[in-house]
Each structure stands twice: as structure tokens, then as C-alpha cells.
């Protein structure tokens, strides 16, 4: 049972890597009256939302807005550009790459998974050379799409998407590049056009500071062209009617009116802060968090400093320190939510989200909650991570 009517003093510290905290300005915008989604006011509003979205994705091309979570938007991308039985290449960076691949299998596609041989790919970013090598061998161009996760939320790794584009181009391969930036967008720099993504998939509840419920596909001309001829069955997800309707600021079906109010507000806030300032703020909080992890004597799940995520930090726990027990204690004692270890690292890692509407002191609260929970777990940190983060942030 949700105890929504109980009132613990102070506030809940939501430090999972999505959903992220929703700013009160956004919550207030969501509470405006619902209006006629076919009326004149909505058309103008819709156009403003779509225009701002292009700035957030850094694209001149259409951005599709679905009433769906990120998973629905994964499906939207695949069913619009591929054909039944197509071979698609996935790079295994962690649980989200795996879930997306499983969804592709359910749709009747044939995923092939690659990773750098001999490496625990759940601890590193995408190695574009592995993709290039595989594509060079595909002389018959059977692989129709390369699917990569920009910010792997299960491990705290941000991969170099421009390098993946270059690998595809260097291999002179026609595969489309499909990128999941569900947790990257709005928190880590993402450049849809410049980096040459054909479809970028995203969602509302991570860097965009909204509740869950809307998802996105940013498109390229090549992806739009593919969607005109592909044979995967598609109806709700089909881009054509949405693109047509969007020209006047409308949607063919009822959009999530109130979440869209929130989206508009959140994007106004983001553009006012400046995307580069937002990315720098995320980098700084992530660095502070890593100082804490190092002081505690714990290991970052990500082993490659070039791909440390600015969005979240995934901390690998040693034998004898059960990550889920630690999380349970932090929640019950300090009203702090930490992210669980996902997939094969369940119980062996926990995640601290420092994305979206976070600042120095919200991060410090999360670090304190973790540090205070160590004692109850019988874990003695090497030194204080709180002090280390303070030294860095002051
Ligand atoms: C959260 C997330 C998703 C899934 O989104 P849902 O909204 O839960 O469907 C997909 N990919 C990544 C990288 C994510 O972080």
C-alpha cells in the first residue's frame, strides 16, 4: 500500500536514476486545466513544444512525442524503420541494452549482440572499433541497424555516439544508427544531428525532470525515408500521421495534455539555464559523487574514466556488503531512495542518481544517507565520502 497520506517530516530524497525529482514549477504547470487538444490554443502550444524539443535534441528534424514510457519509444523506433526478420546489431553495455534487445526479439527481429572480447562490457562504454569490425565483415549488408545506449543507466557509463557513427561510416555500411538516450538527454550532452543518429529514443522522467509517461523519437531524413517503405506492422507508433498532424501543432490521437504542459515548462527552465550549464552541473555533481566513492574505498562499476556518467554513479559493493540491504536501510531510516543494481549485478551494486533537478546539497544529503547506512551494514568505509565530496564542492 502506498502511504500517500502519511507525512514523514521533511521531504523524500529521490536519488534513483529516474524518475528524477520533479521541480515544483513543473508540477504546477502540470496542474493547469486540461484543454481541448483540437482547439486553437493547443495548436500554438503544440508548436512551441515541438520547436523547443528540437533545441533539446539538437536537431532540425521532426521529434515524435508518444504517450508512452521509454520502452514504448524503443518499439516506436524499431517498427518504423525495420522489416520483419531484419538483423540488428546491439552492443551490450548493460541491462538497458539487454532489455531493448529482448524487445527487438519479441518483435520478430534478429538481434546480434557484440561487445569487446575479454572485457566485462557492463563496466565500459561502447567500443566503436568492435562495431566497425563487425560491419566490415557484413559485406552483404544484412545488418540493417546498429542499436546503442548513450547513457547506460544500469552501470553509469556514457558512450561516445559520434564514434559509433564514424565506425559505421568508415565501414561504408548503410545500417541505421538507433540511439537510446532515455537517461542521457538533458543531463549529458546529446547532439542528434551532428552525431548522425537516425533515431534517438528518449523519455520524460530522467534528465527532462518530468514524471514518467511521455517518450520521444528524434528522426533523420534517412529514418523517415525508411519508415515510408518498411513492412513491420505499425499503427499507434507510425510516424507519418504524427508528423503530418504536428505541422499544425496537433497530434492524431489525444496527447498527454498535462504532461505536455510540464514538458513545456521544463524545457523553458532548461533553455533559460542553458544546456551547457546543465551539462557542467551534472559533471560536477558526478565528480563529487566519485570523490565520495573513492574515499569510501568502494569501486565504481564503470572502470573507464572517459565514460563515467554525469547522470548517475553505480557503485559496486564488496563481498559482505549487500547493496539492497543498504538501500532498504537508507529508505526506512532516512527516507532516501537509491537505485538498485539491475540484472546480473542485482545485490552487488547500488546507484546514486544525480540528474535533473539536483544541486550540491541534494547530492550531499544522498551521500550522507549512504554513509550513515554503512554502519548498520557493518561496513567500515576507508574514509568519509561526505567530507571528500564537500572538499571538492566547496
Ligand atoms: C529508463 C530507461 C529506459 C526505459 O524506460 P521506461 O520509461 O522505463 O520504459 C530505457 N533505456 C534507458 C537507458 C533508461 O534509463
UniProtKB/TrEMBL annotation:
Gene3D superfamilies: Aspartate Aminotransferase, domain 1, Type I PLP-dependent aspartate aminotransferase-like (Major domain). The keyword Transcription regulation does not apply. InterPro entries: Aminotrans_V_dom (IPR000192), PyrdxlP-dep_Trfase (IPR015424), PyrdxlP-dep_Trfase_major (IPR015421), PyrdxlP-dep_Trfase_small (IPR015422), SP_NH2Trfase/AEP_transaminase (IPR024169). GO terms for molecular function: alanine-glyoxylate transaminase activity; L-serine-pyruvate transaminase activity. Its cofactor is pyridoxal 5'-phosphate. It holds the Pfam family Aminotran_5. SUPFAM superfamilies: PLP-dependent transferases. The modification N6-(pyridoxal phosphate)lysine is found at residue 206. One of its GO terms (biological process) is glycine biosynthetic process, by transamination of glyoxylate. Substrate binds at residue 351. Residues 17-295 form the Aminotransferase class V domain. Keywords: Aminotransferase, Pyridoxal phosphate, Transferase. Belongs to the class-V pyridoxal-phosphate-dependent aminotransferase family. This is Aminotransferase class V-fold PLP-dependent enzyme. It comes from Polynucleobacter paneuropaeus.
Amino acid at each position: 500500500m502506498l502511504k500517500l497520506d502519511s507525512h514523514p517530516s521533511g521531504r523524500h530524497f529521490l536519488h534513483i536514476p529516474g524518475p528524477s525529482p520533479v521541480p515544483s514549477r513543473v508540477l504546477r504547470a502540470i496542474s493547469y486545466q486540461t484543454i481541448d487538444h483540437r482547439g486553437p490554443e493547443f495548436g500554438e502550444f503544440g508548436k512551441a513544444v515541438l520547436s523547443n524539443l528540437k533545441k533539446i535534441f539538437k536537431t532540425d528534424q521532426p521529434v515524435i512525442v508518444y504517450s508512452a514510457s521509454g520502452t514504448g519509444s524503443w518499439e516506436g523506433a524499431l517498427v518504423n524503420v525495420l522489416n520483419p526478420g531484419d538483423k540488428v546489431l546491439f552492443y551490450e553495455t548493460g541491462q538497458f541494452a539487454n532489455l531493448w534487445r529482448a524487445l527487438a526479439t519479441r518483435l520478430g527481429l534478429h538481434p546480434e549482440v557484440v561487445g569487446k572480447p575479454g572485457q566485462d562490457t557492463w563496466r565500459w562504454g561502447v567500443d566503436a572499433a568492435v562495431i566497425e569490425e563487425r560491419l566490415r565483415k557484413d559485406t552483404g549488408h544484412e545488418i540493417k541497424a546498429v542499436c546503442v545506449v548513450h547513457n547506460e543507466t544500469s552501470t553509469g557509463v556514457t558512450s561516445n555516439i559520434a564514434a559509433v557513427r564514424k565506425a559505421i561510416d568508415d565501414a561504408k555500411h548503410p545500417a541505421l544508427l538507433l540511439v537510446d538516450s532515455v537517461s542521457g538527454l538533458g543531463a549529458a550532452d546529446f547532439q542528434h544531428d551532428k552525431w548522425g543518429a537516425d533515431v534517438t529514443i528518449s523519455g520524460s522522467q530522467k534528465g527532462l525532470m518530468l514524471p514518467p509517461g511521455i517518450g520521444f523519437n528524434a528522426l533523420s531524413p534517412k529514418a523517415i525515408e525508411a519508415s515510408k517503405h518498411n513492412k513491420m506492422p505499425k499503427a499507434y507508433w507510425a510516424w507519418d500521421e504524427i508528423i503530418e498532424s504536428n505541422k499544425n501543432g496537433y497530434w492524431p490521437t489525444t496527447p498527454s495534455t498535462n504532461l505536455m504542459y510540464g514538458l513545456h515548462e521544463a524545457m523553458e527552465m532548461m533553455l533559460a539555464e542553458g544546456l551547457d550549464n546543465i551539462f557542467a552541473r551534472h559533471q560536477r555533481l558526478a565528480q563529487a559523487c566519485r570523490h565520495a566513492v573513492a574515499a569510501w574505498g568502494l569501486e565504481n562499476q564503470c572502470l573507464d574514466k572517459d565514460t563515467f556518467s554525469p547522470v548517475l554513479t553505480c557503485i559496486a559493493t564488496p563481498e559482505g556488503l549487500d547493496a539492497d540491504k543498504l538501500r532498504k536501510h537508507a529508505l526506512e531510516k532516512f527516507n532516501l531512495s537509491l537505485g538498485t543494481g539491475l540484472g546480473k549485478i542485482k545485490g552487488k551494486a547500488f546507484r546514486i542518481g544525480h540528474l535533473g533537478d539536483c544541486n550540491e546539497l541534494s547530492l550531499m544529503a544522498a551521500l550522507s544517507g549512504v554513509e550513515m547506512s554503512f554502519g548498520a551494514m557493518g561496513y567500515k568505509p576507508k574514509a568519509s565520502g561526505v567530507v571528500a565530496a564537500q572538499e571538492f564542492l566547496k
